[in-house]
Amino acid sequence: MTANTLVNSKLVCVALNDKAQLAALDGTFNEAPYKKPPTQPVLYYKPRNTWSVDGAEVEWAKDFDGNDVAAMAVGASLGVVIGKETCRVSADEALDYVGGYTIVSDFSLPEESYYRPDIKGKCLDTSAPVGPEIVTADKVANPNALTVTVSVNGEQKSVFELANMERSIAELISIISRIMTLQAGEIIAVGFAGDRVAVAKGDKVEASIEGVGTLNNTLGGA
Amino acid sequence: MRHARIVFDGRELDIDIDPNDRITTSEGEVLDVALDSDQITWLPPVKAPGTIFALGINYADHASELAFEPPKEPLVFIKHANTLTGHKQVSYRPDGIEYQHYECELVAVIGKTGKNIKREDALDYVAGYTVCNDFAIRDYLENYYRPNLRVKSRDSLLPMGPWIVDTADIPDANALKLTTTVNGKVTQDGSTKDMIFDVPFVIEYLSKIMTLNPGDMICTGTPHGIVDCQPGDTIVCSIEDVCSLETRMVSEQEFYGDKY
C-alpha cells in the first residue's frame, strides 16, 4: 500500500456488471461450476497491499515458481467514493451518500473463472492504482452517463459506457450497504468493460473518464 | 503473555494479561478487575486491523460435511474490519433466512511485513493467535467468487478474541482441541490437527502472491459440526490454550436499531 493512497479502509469491485459480457456468458452460467446465473452483484475486494496511485509503476506478477507470469490484463472503472457512513440506504437516496468520484484501474492475471475468490489473480501488490484525484460529487451531474476508456501506449483499447451497466451506481450502493456498513473514503469500483485489456511489460496504461480525470500507470518488468 | 483491547471505566485500553490473569495497561497501570467482570467491554483484539484472510473447507471432515472434495490448494477469501466484533458482543441473524452457522477458527495474527516467506520462517511473522467465529449464511451462497461477500462480509459476523496469545506460548498450533457450544451444549468437537493447510503453509502461499503486513489476520477454517443459530442463542467458540469467544445472536432489527 502506498502512503498516499486515496482509498480509506476498503476497495470493493463489482465484476460482471457489463450487460454485453453477461449476455455473452449467459450459456456458461447455466453450466458447472456456476449452474445458474448470478442473482446478486458479483463483488470482490482489492485489499490494501494492492492500493496504489497515479503515476506509479505496477509490478509485473510472478508465478509460484518465482518466474514472471506470461500475461496480465487491466480493466478500469469509475470509483465511487463514499462520503459518509452508509448503512442500509435505499437506491433512491444512495447518491446522497457519495462524496466524490475517481478512477480505479484493476490490474490482474487474465480473468479465467469467477467461481472462487481470485486471490492469485486480483491481490497482486500495487495492482489497484486509484486516482488521479477525487472529484467532488457536485462536479459530476450524471455519473451513470460517463464513459470509461483504456488506452495502452497511446492506442485506445477499450470503451465502456456506464449506461451499459447491469446495475446502476445507486442500486449497487444500496445493495452493498445492506451487506456492509460503508464508511467515508471507502471506494466502490462499480463496473468494468467485460473484455479486459491485455498488457505487456513496460506498457503505459491510461484510464480516462471525462470530467473525472486520467489515471496513468506503467507496467514494471521491462 | 496475552494481549487485548478493552473499554474499562470509560477508557479504551490496550492491555497485557499475565499468567495469573493480572491486567496491566500499556501505560503500566494495573487494573483491579477480574477477567470475567461485566465491567470490561471487549473490543476486537487487533488494534489496526488489516486484510483478513479466511480459509474455506480447510478441514477434511468439514469438506465432506459440505459435500466438497478437499481442496488441492487453499480456498482463500477476504474480509474487512466491518465484520469484526469483540468477545461477549452480539452478531445478527439476517431476516428471512433458513441456515446460519458459526465457524470456530484459529486465527494467526501477522506481526511483521513479509513477501515470499518460506514455510520454515513463517512463524517469525506471526505475532500470536486468537479465536474467531466466521459466521456463514448458507442461503446467500452463489457460485460466483464463492463464498461471496453477501455470505461472508456482513457487519458483526466475525467475532474475534477476547485476546491474542503470543506465538511463543503455543508450541504447536496444530495440536489444539477446538470446541463450540450453543446454549451450553457441545455442537462442535474437533482438533486443529485436522487442518489441511496449516498456518506456515498458508503464509508461504499467500506471501508468494502478495505482501503480508502487521495487522493482517489468517482465519484457518473450521472442522465438522455446524448447526443453525437463532436470535437468543449464546455461542462459545473455544480453542485450547488460546481463548474462548462468547457471542450472543440477535435479530437484524435488534442489531441495526434505528438504521433498520
Automatic annotation (TrEMBL), chain A:
It comes from the Bacteria. Residues 10-219 form the Fumarylacetoacetase-like C-terminal domain. The lineage of its organism: Bacteria, Pseudomonadati, Pseudomonadota, Gammaproteobacteria, Oceanospirillales. This is 5-oxopent-3-ene-1,2,5-tricarboxylate decarboxylase / 2-hydroxyhepta-2,4-diene-1,7-dioate isomerase. The keyword Metal-binding applies. Keywords: Isomerase, Metal-binding. One of its GO terms (molecular function) is 5-carboxymethyl-2-hydroxymuconate delta-isomerase activity. Gene3D superfamilies: Fumarylacetoacetase-like, C-terminal domain. InterPro entries: Fumarylacetoacetase-like_C, Fumarylacetoacetase_C_sf, HPA_isomer/decarb_N. PANTHER family: 4-HYDROXYPHENYLACETATE CATABOLISM PROTEIN, ACYLPYRUVASE. It comes from Marinobacterium stanieri.
Automatic annotation (TrEMBL), chain B:
Keywords: Metal-binding. Decarboxylates OPET (5-oxo-pent-3-ene-1,2,5-tricarboxylic acid) into HHDD (2-hydroxy-hept-2,4-diene-1,7-dioate) and isomerizes it to OHED (2-oxo-hept-3-ene-1,7-dioate). PANTHER family: 4-HYDROXYPHENYLACETATE CATABOLISM PROTEIN, ACYLPYRUVASE. The keyword Metal-binding applies. GO terms for biological process: 4-hydroxyphenylacetate catabolic process. It catalyses: (3E,5R)-5-carboxy-2-oxohept-3-enedioate + H(+) = (4Z)-2-oxohept-4-enedioate + CO2; (2E,4Z)-5-hydroxypenta-2,4-diene-1,2,5-tricarboxylate = (3E,5R)-5-carboxy-2-oxohept-3-enedioate. This is 5-carboxy-2-oxohept-3-enedioate decarboxylase HpaG2 subunit. It comes from the Bacteria. Pathway: Aromatic compound metabolism; 4-hydroxyphenylacetate degradation; pyruvate and succinate semialdehyde from 4-hydroxyphenylacetate: step 5/7; Aromatic compound metabolism; 4-hydroxyphenylacetate degradation; pyruvate and succinate semialdehyde from 4-hydroxyphenylacetate: step 4/7. Residues 51-249 form the Fumarylacetoacetase-like C-terminal domain. Belongs to the FAH family. SUPFAM superfamilies: FAH. Signal peptide: none annotated. Pfam families: FAA_hydrolase (PF01557). One of its GO terms (molecular function) is metal ion binding.
